[in-house]
Amino acid sequence: MASIITATVASGLTQSADNSGVLQLASGTGNLVTVPSVTGTAMVSGNMPAFSAFGNVSYSITTGVDTKVRFETERFDTANCFDSTTNYRFTPNVAGYYQINYIGRFQATSPTIAYVMLYKNGSMYIVGNQIMGIASGTNFDLPASDLVYMNGTTDYLEVYINVGGTSILVNDNGTKQLYCWQSNNGNF
Fold first, then answer.
1. Mean pLDDT in the chain?
2. For a Cys staple, 8 with which of 2, 28, 60, 73, CB 3.0–4.6 Å?
3. How far apart are CA 173 and CA 30, in angstroms?
4. 14 and 5 in contact (C-beta within 8 Å)?
5. pLDDT digits (tens, 9 = 90+) for 145-155
6. Does the pLDDT value for residue 134 go beyond 80?
7. In whole angstroms, what separates CA 73 from the centre of its chain?
8. What burial class does residue 90 get, using C-beta atoms within 10 Å of its C-beta: 0-12 exposed, 13-18 middle, 19+ buried?
């Protein structure tokens, strides 16, 4: 036999028996969470923010200037925390550590150096990947991945790219998956 523990405004915590064999927690509005049967620490996951987005428009950037990468198309956004229309930023509504994976793709004439960066709250957080000695006129991907703590209210993340050279084009093509920025929350 197991129990359902319900929190209501009128009655506080109430307990009722069921025959499922598991512990369940319910809010007064009927939201139900099942606590897994494990030995040790149990991780209870609700609607944790996770998303996948990519760019679908190519655009020119200025040499040597940190430029925000645009991710205009979402594959999915489980908690509506990614803005793909204006700011191209991720603002999770749950505090925790987030695994962020991102790729910047560019093409330049006479490139000298290129790097992709993760910005947190409007400032550079980390340089994710850097390359020098790039062949002129070829497409090049700069993949990176970082683990970042987010407070769940005001923290936000953005991806920037910086390329030295001339005639710099940030390439996007949704069918070729040229940009991908994904996040999954995990408690460590």
1. 75
2. 28
3. 43
4. yes
5. 888 899 989 99
6. no
7. 14
8. buried
For residue 88, the one-letter residue type is Y
Contacts of 88 (CB under 8 A, 6+ apart): 53, 68, 69, 70, 71, 72, 158, 159
Instruction: State how far the alpha carbon of 70 is from the alpha carbons of 28, 51, 166, in Å.
Output: 41, 15, 20
Which residue bears the tokens 């405004």? Answer: 9
Question: CA-CA distance, 23 to 41, in Å (whole number)?
Answer: 15
On the 0-12 / 13-18 / 19+ scale of CB atoms within 10 A, 108 is buried
Instruction: Give the Å distances, CA to CA, from 146 to 11, 101, 116, 181.
Output: 45, 7, 12, 11
With bands split at pLDDT 50, 70 and 90, how would you rate the model's confidence at 46?
low
Mean pLDDT, to the nearest integer, of 109-118?
Answer: 84
What is the pTM for the complete model shown? 0.71
- Are 114 and 75 in contact by the 8 Å Cβ rule? The answer is no
Question: What domains sit in the chain, N to C, each tagged with a CATH number?
Answer: 2-35 (no CATH), 50-186 (2.60.120.40)
Please give the single-letter amino acid code of residue 78.
T
